[in-house]
Design a protein that fits this description.
The chain has 178 residues and is an all-beta fold. Strands 1-2-3-4-5-8-9-10 form an eight-stranded antiparallel beta barrel.
């Protein structure tokens, strides 16, 4: 008898709804979970994707877990969790005509998920889920006192401001898993 591959992929598209320091919003999210199936009920792996908050892009990088309550049924209840970092790697430093520098930096992120899986083949599933996601990011702006300022040295700046923004999200996703 053949044995199922232990590799698991779960790719999802969805809608981030929620609030931040600026008020309510609706944004796009894409996520993929790649890992190994430890048992019939549990898988662990790595999560990445893209969360788009208006003109701000966050690349989540996290460790994740997926668990299935009733793996023998055609309709299955599953849950998951991720903990990691939301990177602002796609963001660049902007300098305006007054030499004011603006940039963004990522921060911690965490997510808990509950959803349903519909079995289409032995190990393939369509999924629908709801998640609570919290993403912390930092927005910076400053006016440098020297030509090439170091962002981590306060003495290189005449003016320096850091704003912590917390994105609290209710996330709706649909996906496919194999």
């Amino acid at each position: 008898m053949g044995q199922d591959l232990p590799f698991v992929n779960h790719t999802e598209l969805g809608l981030l709804t929620g609030s931040d320091n600026f008020g309510p919003r609706n944004n796009f999210t894409f996520q993929t979970f790649n890992g190994v199936q430890l048992t019939r009920r549990h898988a662990v792996g790595f999560v990445t994707g893209l969360d788009q908050y208006a003109n701000y892009s966050v690349l989540p990088l996290a460790l994740g877990w997926r668990g299935v309550l009733n793996p023998q049924n055609k309709w299955q209840l599953y849950g998951g969790g991720e903990l990691g970092y939301g990177s602002a790697v796609f963001e660049s430093v902007e300098v305006n005509e007054w030499e004011q520098h603006n940039w963004r930096k990522g921060g911690m992120m965490g997510q808990g998920t509950i959803g349903f899986r519909y079995k289409t083949k032995k190990t393939n599933f369509w999924t629908a889920s709801v998640s609570l996601k919290r993403q912390i990011s930092y927005f910076y702006n400053g006016n440098p006192s020297r030509l090439s300022p170091n962002r981590s040295r306060p003495e290189d700046w005449n003016y320096f401001e850091e704003d912590k923004v917390t994105f609290n999200n209710l996330v709706y996703r649909i996906g496919y898993s194999f």
